[in-house]
Design brief:
- The complex is a heterodimer of chains A (88) and B (222).
- Chain A is of the alpha+beta class and 88 residues long.
- Chain A has one domain: Mth169, Chain: A.
- Helices cover 32% and strands 28% of the residues of chain A.
- Chain A has 2 helices and 3 strands.
- The radius of gyration of chain A is 17 Å and the shape is elongated.
- Chain B has a 9-stranded mixed sheet, sandwiched between helices. In chain B, strands 5-8 form a two-stranded antiparallel ribbon.
- The longest helix of chain B is centred in the C-terminal third of the chain and has 13 residues.
- The chains are: A alpha+beta (88), B alpha/beta (222).
- Chains A and B meet through helix 1 of A and loops of B.
C-alpha cells in the first residue's frame, strides 16, 4: 500500500486573504520577522496500486479531478510504501 | 413552464426558490440530488446553501452528485440552468461556468443587501429590467469572491457574459462581478439572492424582474 502526502497551495498569483489575516495577527503578536503566510490544505491518502508509477498516476488524476481547483490551486506530493493495514 | 429546483444535502434556499417560482405561476418541484434524470424540465435551478457542508471547497463535492450528469446534459441541450449562491459555486466547480468563487477578500460571512448594476440587459435573466436600473438584492456568503484569469475575464467582457456587477464591491470579486452566464447564454450563476426579494412582505421586490425575465425568455424561447 502507498501513502500519498499531498500539499495544496494557492498559485503565487492568487491573493490568499486567510494567509494575509494570519500574517497580520502574527505581526501583532510581535513576530516581526514574518514576511509571508500562505494557508493551504494537506491530505493523506492511502491507496493500493501495482507500482509506484501507477500510484503516482492515480494520485495526480484524483488530485486534479477533485482535491484542487486548477483555476487557483497547485500541489505537490510525496509518495511512500507503507504497511498494508489502514490506520496501522 | 416546468422547473426543477435541485436539493443537495445542505441546500437551504431550495424552498425559497420553489416558492418564488410558484409565485410566478411556474410548475416547479424539488428534485433530489440523488436523482439521475431531469427530463421535461424547461429550467433547472441550483439553490443556495452549504451543499455537502462546503467540505473541501464550496461546490466541489456537489458537482459529483448523481444529478449533475443530468444537469450537464440539460445544459448541453440548451435548457436554462440557474445557480444562485452555492448553486453558482457548484456550476463553476462543474466547469459549466468559468472561474471560481474564493474566500471573501476580507474573510468572513457577509449578510447584507447590496446594489447591483445590470451589465447586460439582453439576457434571459435581465430583459425585464430598465436599462439604467440599479437594484438592491440580498447577499449571504463567505466565499463570493469571483476569480478568473485575465484571458477568461477578457472573454467574459468581450462576449457580454457579465450580467450583474456590484456597485460597491463587497467581497473582492474581479471586475466587480456578481453574476455571469456562459457564451450561449443558457447557463447563469450569481452570488446575490433574487429569490429573497420578490415579496412586499420582506421589504424588497427588486428580484421580481429576474423571474419575469426568465419567464418571458422561456415563453418566447430566447
Amino acid at each position: 500500500m502507498y501513502l500519498a502526502k499531498i500539499y495544496v497551495t494557492y498559485k503565487p498569483s492568487i491573493l490568499d486573504p486567510q494567509g494575509e489575516v494570519i500574517k497580520s495577527a502574527l505581526k501583532r503578536m510581535d513576530y516581526i520577522g514574518v514576511e509571508q503566510v500562505s494557508q493551504g490544505k494537506y491530505f493523506e491518502v492511502k491507496l493500493t496500486a501495482k507500482s509506484i508509477d501507477a500510484a503516482t498516476a492515480e494520485v495526480e488524476s484524483f488530485t486534479d479531478a477533485l482535491l484542487i481547483n486548477q483555476n487557483t490551486e497547485t500541489y505537490h506530493f510525496d509518495l511512500s510504501l507503507v504497511a498494508d493495514e489502514v490506520n496501522a | 413552464m416546468k422547473a426543477a429546483v435541485i436539493s443537495f444535502p445542505g441546500s437551504n434556499c431550495d424552498f425559497d426558490m420553489l416558492y418564488a417560482l410558484q409565485d410566478f405561476g411556474v410548475d416547479a418541484q424539488i428534485v433530489s440530488a440523488k436523482q439521475t434524470a431531469l427530463t421535461d424540465f424547461d429550467a433547472i435551478f441550483l439553490p443556495g446553501g452549504f451543499s455537502y457542508g462546503d467540505y473541501l471547497r464550496t461546490g466541489a463535492i456537489a458537482r459529483f452528485s448523481p444529478i449533475m450528469s443530468a444537469v450537464t446534459q440539460a445544459a448541453n441541450a440548451g435548457k436554462l440552468i440557474v445557480g444562485i449562491c452555492n448553486g453558482f459555486q457548484i456550476l463553476t466547480e462543474a466547469g459549466l461556468l468559468p472561474g471560481q468563487l474564493l474566500v471573501n477578500a476580507t474573510p468572513g460571512f457577509i449578510c447584507d443587501e447590496v446594489a447591483l448594476s445590470i451589465a447586460n440587459h439582453e439576457t434571459a435573466y435581465t430583459n425585464a429590467y430598465e436599462m439604467s436600473e440599479s437594484i438592491v438584492v440580498p447577499i449571504a456568503h463567505g466565499e463570493g469572491n469571483y476569480f478568473a484569469d485575465d484571458d477568461t475575464l477578457a472573454r467574459l467582457e468581450a462576449n457580454n457574459q457579465i450580467v450583474f456587477r456590484y456597485v460597491n464591491n463587497p467581497n473582492g470579486s474581479v471586475h466587480d462581478i456578481a453574476g455571469i452566464m456562459n457564451e450561449r447564454g443558457n447557463i447563469f450563476g450569481m452570488m446575490p439572492h433574487p429569490e429573497r426579494a420578490i415579496d412586499e412582505v420582506t421589504g424588497n421586490i427588486d428580484g421580481q424582474n429576474f423571474f419575469k425575465s426568465i419567464l418571458s425568455s422561456i415563453l418566447t424561447n430566447v
